[in-house]
């Protein structure tokens, strides 16, 4: 299938598909006229790539993991990389949760006296 069809079937832009090729995440054959042609399994591969990007993995990490998924095996190194990525995401979640708690505290304060607040546009009881 050509790049436009793969884009339509996988729900990504042709620009993304070209980027995936540039990052060696996806491969195509070229016709005599230079057009890209992909096998049917490319749709599933693109969907997997999108899933891994959605999990906030880098293209470098994805490139290292894709050979393992294609072979339907999970070697120790791949499993360790995935676990490390999960720990990194867990740490980000914890940081965001802490930031949300602090934001909730600031929001609660805005319901109280704002005397001395230098924030432009803030409602100030002294006004």
Structure description:
The protein is mostly helical and 127 residues long. Helices cover 61% and strands 3% of the residues. It is built from five helices and two strands. The protein has a two-stranded antiparallel ribbon with strand order 1-2. Helix 1 packs across helix 3. The model has no long low-confidence stretch (mean pLDDT 85).
Q: How are the SSEs ordered, and which strands pair?
A:
Elements: H1 3-10, H2 14-22, E1 29-30, E2 36-37, H3 42-54, H4 59-70, H5 76-110
Antiparallel strand pairs: 1-2
Helix pairs in contact: 1-3
Give the uncertain stretches in residue-range form. none
Return the structural class.
mainly alpha
Order of strands side by side in the largest beta sheet?
A: 1-2
What does the oligomeric state look like here?
single chain
Q: Biggest sheet, in brief?
A: 2 strands, antiparallel
How far is the N terminus from the C terminus? 68 Å
Summary of the model, kept short:
The protein is built from five helices and two strands; from the N terminus they run H-H-E-E-H-H-H.
Key features of this structure:
single chain; mainly alpha; 127 residues
